[in-house]
Design a protein that fits this description.
Blueprint (H helix, E strand, L loop, with lengths): L4 E5 L23 H12 L3 E6 L4 H8 L8 E6 L21 H6 L9 E5 L2 E2 L2 H12 L8 E9 L10 E9 L2 E14 L2 E3 L4 E2 L4 E9 L3 H14 L12 H10 L3 E8 L4 E2 L5 H14 L10
Parallel strand pairs: 1-2, 1-4, 2-3, 6-12
Antiparallel strand pairs: 4-11, 5-13, 6-11, 7-8, 7-11, 8-9, 9-10
Amino acid sequence: MEKTTLVIMAAGMGSRFGGIKQIEPVGPSGEIILDYSVYDAIEAGFNKVIIIIRKDIEKEFKEVIGDRLGKHIEVEYVFQDMDALPKGYKKPEGRTKPWGTGHAILSCKGKISTPFVVINADDYYGKEGFQKIHEFLVNPIVADTKYNFCMAGFHLGNTLSENGTVTRGVCKVDHDILVDIEETYEIKKEEGFAKTETKTIPLDQPVSMNMWGFTPDFMEELETRFSTFLDNMEDNEMKAEYLLPLIVDNLIKESKATVHVLDTKDKWFGVTYKEDKEFVVNSFLDLVKKGVYPEKLFD
């Protein structure tokens, strides 16, 4: 059986939530969202988990996770360190914001040797995306480009929060191939559409939820392009982020990568805002009642 890895980004600051949202209990037996993602990934066929955290939340994180996951799948932790920069570069004085999702995955350098899926710790994705990405990673569709990746394409209407605006990678897709991805901010649901201050977007528009399927050679691109990113922050040294959607979009524009969009109709939910927790708790209770998950995920 081919080895595949689940990479979970859990080093975010949680500024809008007001705490360490990655370890907020939401399941009927105290499960966190990450537990459900690992459960679904194991079911889909993934056989290793790498969890990316910050050093300052290690104690709290490991106390919540304990050893329950390690009984079911190989687990490894890596740290996203803001000072982990290429030789000759230094973190701007006063910067506290992490470098972004691209830098998070770069933290796994030397740890990833198999095809892998990337997810956020505080997002619930459903089962379909894991199943489709795993199938793609072990049986890839041949492409003419150097890199052959995939992503779960969620319907925008299934990814909106009732408690505030969200940021989504809005995708242009042609025959299931990603053509363009635009990071779009402050999206809210209104009058049967998704809207920003300047545009209206159909609710069935495909969007990225940072659920990507990559091959190990993607790590080389991440490393090479990070120096270029640091050289071009201009006047945004405190907040500029090295983001996966932008990196992937550049590879597409350079004709280096083909990204297959795997349609998923599962409904996303997560704890972007404190007010989201009640909905998330009730949603998991409903999934347990329907038999999608056992009342206690891991014994």
